[in-house]
Amino acid sequence: MDFILTETEFNKENIAWNGNRFLIGNGYFGIRGTLEEYTKKQMCAVNMAGIYDRVRDSWRESVNAPNPIYTYVKVNGKAYTLPDEKPKFHQQELDFRYGIHCRVTRWKTEHGDITVICERFASIARQHNIAMKYTFSADFDCEAEIITGIDGDVWDINGPHFVKMQMGSKDGIAYVTGITGEKNISVTAKECIRTDFQSEQTNQNTDKSIFRHIRFTAKANKEYAFEKIAEITTSVDDFGTNGRIDELSYRELKDEHKAEWDKIWDISHIHIDGDDEAEYALNYSIYHLNCIAPRNMKGKSIPARGLSGQVYKGAVFWDTEMFMIDYYIHTAPEVAKTLLQYRIDTLDGARTKAKGYGLDGAYYAWESQEGGYEGCSDYNVTDVFTNRPMRTHFRDKQYHVSAAIVYGLMKYINATGDYDILNEGAMEMVIECAKFYRSLLLKKADKPYYEIHDAVGPDEYHERVNNNAYTNRMAKFVFDTALELSEKYPIESELKERLKDSSKNILIKEPNASGIIEQFDGYFKLEDASVDTVRSRLINPKEYWGGAYGVAADTQVIKQADVVAMLSMFKNDYTSDIMAKNLKYYEPRTEHGSSLSACMYSLLACYTDNPEIAYPMFMKSAKADLVKGGKEWAGLIYIGGTHPASAGGAWIAAVKGFAGISEENGHLVCRPNLPEKWNGMTFKLIYKGKKYLVEIQDGNGAISII
């Protein structure tokens, strides 16, 4: 398969988008796919995993490290950079087989053409390291100067986060250290360069950065190259570096890096026979999941926008357990366990949040930062007309997050057989989540069942609703899970009886006479307008559709899969007919305003034997970062970035939907339901410590241990 993503012309309008789709990373940091000469104006960033800072009353967000790949060239005293100087030729490329970014740019000067080629990667084998090879040539003799260094004047959405900067150079290694204001965390970038030509070199320091000026006389049609080995570290790292950077070579690092990627792709790659476009998009999605996975790290998780920048505050959402963890469970179970360990480690933060709202147990953060700190504010959207913050209820009413974590835990346990995790804090987490949902239950004086009021379900356009079908069903799942596990991991008898009562008597919405499950109390009474009709009511294209005054709030138009998500997750509870009727009802009423939505519709379509309906939704998920036009604004807030939950959802739709992989009685089964254009699929999975090969051809599936 072709693992190359290429853009063959320069378009200034694509700079922000390219930063996302050409991303490279290694789980410890992500480097946006911006060019070497770019600065914060072009949203250049080396985004750190799990490092946060807050400036005054601004949103708390992840921290971008000093940028050690900053480089540009001067010829005869004139700088040649994009976007300032229009190129004669430009190509940007990502080899997502190996996470290697490459650019080739040629400018026409008054004397002839000059060419810059740069290749770089974030080492997946040595996660502190970045390696870069930069080559300059001209078709005429000239005086050349390459300016390269560490740019400490970083891009921040709600910064600046470095209140103190330190820089210097020793034994040929330059460094810039930024120190955050909130917790005095230091983030250091170091670099070492090697040239293969004679030059004069000088250093220049500014108040935030350090640059090297490499001056030389360039002969016509000769290439001049230098290698840069960089290192990123922080004062809170939990794993060490791998040797001095001045002792490492570009070739050595590249060979190690590629060897490690070969191991990852050996278990990750999915072959689709008959549909090259789908195979390409799905494996590109898998690349993004691979390059942000917290390998060899403790208690780290994956933010909603991966490591593509500070969007969504660099926070961890329910996306991880609902849409991403499935992929890691079956390809890198140690990563899946790390993701769950993050939730175990942040249990106290979830307890603190619950207590703050007068509730029991563990209420996990909607936007979780270190320690389970809630990064979401009560005013999370800006009104485009008044420019004032709007009151939203993501922080205080998204009760379903805690259940998503328990759901993710059980997916992990069922697929790995790792019950030991329950003795490592996970059982306590389940119990605390069950207590939380018990404390939400209400009972009207003349009703025999429990209700959950004042909630926000996955469909965020309708806030403060009663008996959201998804939320109530997920609460029951948590009660049932705690009770099931209590057979092996005993809990106090009084609590056990309360959970039995909760599970038995919580209101679970049933299909009406037409077979449709009402999303929440009163949903059917809302205006039944089409998505296009609601969209036509926008005065400003950046308006938020939900909240108290949003154009969708009083209509049946929803943001994303809600009832459909529930049916996909609990398919054994419903007939195929009920699932099909709800799919047909809710899909036309769904704006798909979240990248989490399409995959759930695709999955449910597969479960109802409609692979042709599932296919476009699958492709929408798989191509979320390949196709321009995704939602990049919520009010006046920029929300662009990569979509790892959509990538994970594409994997789920492909493997559990089209390939029909499921677990039955402790074994994997394969009941394929492929789209018409697919002749077959081949891929590998890990299940309960064993590696399996899945081969599907002519509608038949076979699973074998390898």
Q: Short description, anyone?
A:
The chain is α+β, with helices and mostly antiparallel strands and 706 residues long.
How would you describe this protein?
The chain is of the alpha+beta class and 706 residues long. Helices cover 30% and strands 25% of the residues. It is built from 17 helices and 28 strands. The strands form seven sheets. The chain has a nine-stranded antiparallel beta sheet with strand order 1-8-9-10-11-18-15-14-13, covered by helices on one side. A five-stranded antiparallel beta sheet has the order 7-6-12-17-16, with no helix packed on it. It has a four-stranded antiparallel beta sheet with strand order 2-3-4-5, with no helix packed on it. Helix 3 (276-291) packs across helix 17 (644-658), helix 4 runs parallel beside helix 8 (400-416) and helix 15 (597-607) packs parallel to helix 17 (644-658). The longest helix has 21 residues, at 420-440. It is globular and about 90 Å long. The two termini are 22 Å apart. The model has no long low-confidence stretch (mean pLDDT 96).
Question: Topology, please?
Answer:
Elements lengths: L3 E4 L7 H7 L2 E2 L3 E3 L14 E8 L7 E5 L1 E9 L2 E3 L8 E7 L4 E9 L4 E10 L6 E10 L3 E10 L10 E9 L2 E8 L5 E10 L4 E6 L4 E9 L5 E11 L15 H19 L2 E3 L2 H16 L27 H13 L1 H13 L1 H10 L24 E2 L6 E2 L3 H4 L2 H17 L3 H21 L28 H17 L7 H13 L25 H6 L26 H7 L6 H11 L10 H11 L3 H12 L10 E2 L2 E2 L5 H15 L2 E4 L2 E4 L9 E8 L2 E8 L2 E6 L1
Antiparallel strand pairs: 1-8, 2-3, 3-4, 4-5, 6-7, 6-12, 8-9, 9-10, 10-11, 11-18, 12-17, 13-14, 14-15, 15-18, 16-17, 19-26, 20-21, 22-23, 24-25, 26-27, 27-28
Helix pairs in contact: 3-17, 4-5, 4-8, 4-17, 5-8, 5-9, 8-9, 8-10, 9-10, 10-11, 13-14, 13-15, 14-15, 15-16, 15-17, 16-17
